[in-house]
Amino acid sequence: MEQTLALPHGTLAWDDVGPRQSGLVVVLVHGFPHDRGLWSAQVAAHASVFPESRLLLPDLPGFGRSTPLTTPSMDGYADAIAAMLDAAGVTTAVIGGLSMGGYVALAFWRRHAHRVRALMLMDTRAPGDSDEARAKRRDMIATVTRDGAGAIVPGLLSQQLGPTTRSSNPALMAQVEVLLRRAPAIGVIGAATAMMDRVDSTPTLETITVPTLVLVGEEDTLTPVTDAVVLSSAIRGSRLVTVAAAGHLSPLEQPKVVNAAIAEFLDVSGLF
């Protein structure tokens, strides 16, 4: 299942799930500061919900078992995914990403549009950081540098999971805490810097010509429904799905709903 590739900066690791001969390859890119474990519910449902597809689930550089980039950036993350596709023998794929993974998906579209069959943008937004957001990221970087990545986990738990999950699903709370606590400081600092420096993707939206799913948790306060509406309105022909009782990590918080939405999108877009 796990595959690795030696790149100039080090190792890139990913999970490869499903039939190698499948004509439909779906890449799922995790958010911040996660790793491929974010998609555990999608992997678990593969045989029943996505049996005809092949899932590629990378650890972005600096997370999981992937080596950090020398100079982290959204473009660098996108190029690492292109290298993964080459190594996997894949020409074109559906590119999906959550939160920071959505920023990477938009960067991938700008740099490798000819390789994109469709886009799935989940709990994410197009604009770059505001001055206030950059200041918060600098504070986060200072905290992690001083106290380690574990120092930011309590705040992330309350921000990333919706109130329904926090009040009714302690098992998932514990699972997400484990996911967050295994993020290495160097990956957290690099990704926070890359997000702080990322370009405004708003002009990119009108260039998107492939089927696009925009999905958002109804309780997401980091990239709320209003951001998803802006995304969907700017992307011609896109589909907008709002997931009830889910916060920023909708694929984990409401996996059955999200899996069904993804499967329906792939089906109605004629991608099978």
Can you characterise this structure?
The structure is a single chain. This protein is of the alpha/beta class and 272 residues long. The chain has one domain: Alpha/Beta hydrolase fold, catalytic domain (Rossmann fold, 3-Layer(aba) Sandwich). It has helices at 40-44, 46-49, 74-88, 100-112, 131-147, 153-160, 163-168, 170-181, 185-197, 202-205, 225-234, 250-253, 255-268, and strands at residues 2-7, 10-17, 24-29, 53-58, 93-98, 116-122, 212-217, 239-243. An eight-stranded mixed sheet has the order 1-2-4-3-5-6-7-8, with helices on both faces. Strand 5 (93-98), helix 4 and strand 6 form a beta-alpha-beta unit. The mean pLDDT is 96.
List its traits.
single chain, 272 residues, alpha/beta, Rossmann fold, 13 helices, globular
Radius of gyration: 17 Å
> Which band does the percent of strand residues land in?
15-25%
Q: Which superfamily, in CATH terms, is the homologous superfamily?
A: Alpha/Beta hydrolase fold, catalytic domain
Query: From the coordinates shown, what is the CATH architecture?
Result: 3-Layer(aba) Sandwich
Query: Which class do the helix and strand fractions yield?
Result: alpha/beta
How does the overall form come out from the CA principal axes? globular
Query: How is the CATH topology named?
Result: Rossmann fold
